[in-house]
Batch of 2 targets.
Target 1
Amino acid sequence: MYVDHITLQDLIKYQGVKCEVLQGYYYDGNRDMRIRDEVKKLFELRLKYKKEENPLQEIIKLILNSIYGKTILSPIESKITIVDDKDAIRYAIRNYNHIVKFEGLDGSDKTIFKLTKSICRHFNFCPLGVNILSMSKRIMNEVFCTAEDMGLQIFYQDTDSMHLYNEDIPKLAAEFKKRYGRELIGKNLGQFHSDFAEITPGKQSLAYKSIFCGKKTYIDLLTNDLNEVAFHCRMKGVKQDVIALTANEMFPEAIQCYYNEDKNIHIPVGTYDKDSEFSLMKLYKALYDGQEIAFDLCKSCQPCFAEKFNFSITTKTSFIR
């Protein structure tokens, strides 16, 4: 088993493991912590833009997410080269040992080559990357293990989120503060807050019913003090509007729903209450019961494109998942 120092500490603390170190790398100098300051700057900048409803906050979010991916980048094993047609034969002769495939570019005098790329010069910053991953797990372990020690029920957990009873949150936050000396609830780095979108601004949404089908596939029926109803849906690889469209087609007798992109929630139409039968809930119940359902991603309001090796682009008419 390969671990870094953060994971090893957590294994000992939370699992009580005893281990023998066979071999490894260690650093006898000071650790470079400058990345913390840079991440904090970006995080605060995103909060500022988000408060202003500036779409730049999405760019900052992508930059923050890419820090981990870039530091632990997998080897790049191929590269693309474009040469003039008049030089293509000479280029092929000189590089034939590395060429995977080649093709002429439509409407041009260029040829595109795909070649194998040696990983001898590949570089990443995995000592930092594995620390980022381990620290993200530690942040979650602190909360999960505290909840488990208290006998609280966690219904679903993901990389950075969990589902638990709303009334248990104050008890969990108090115990967390006692153990770690930090505030659990908030919107700063390392803190947690409700991720459910508000149906009406200023009115907190809570999950009245939930169906968990598997990893990154679940639905929450949201309601608030005004007895409004909406749905928080997740299904990895399937667009939100396709989920609603498929549910409405499969269960036309149920309350129909549509996806509100601005609020990032699904809204039912017609007359209903929180105990009505909704098409979305019936869809997830069918998945939970083991029914196989095909989703055509091309039914989305956004077109599906297929980009070919020679850079030509076609519109897909069907993409079943």
Note: The mean pLDDT is 93.
Target 2
Amino acid sequence: YTAYLFAQAKARDLWQNPLLPPHLLVQALLAGSAVLLTASAWFEATRPRRTFIDIVPPTVFASLVILAVTSLLHVLMVWGEVSLTHPTAHARLAIWEMVNGRYKSNFWIGLVLSILGGALPSLAILGYLSVSVGVGGAPLALIGMMLFEHAYVQAGQSVPLA
């Protein structure tokens, strides 16, 4: 629905990107997996254990995988958004404003947090980090996505219409 509303804003060239609907879908999956990962890890931590074997519960493992994949897709789509050629000067100016202008702090910090939010679960899946550190990637991914979205929406509105 949000992609449809952004597409209706014809004067805001940044939001006319064909990557926007799939990117919003990836962001929805990322947000959902981050919340489910946090909830399932908390739920599994409060359950009594019957064995001494340290096995990652399937719900936590699946949420780690989905968070890692969607974070990677989010970062790739952000990279595509800023690196692909934009057809209008207004869209190019909005991208410049997001990456180098007023919103660069939100953009770059959001990108770094999104990368960390995907790297920590990935390393936990591969066994290089503990699962609890991998779960810590969930809030980083959410905060990173929030900062990117703030920069994206504000940069799209920062270009004068006339």
Note: The chain has seven helices and no strands.
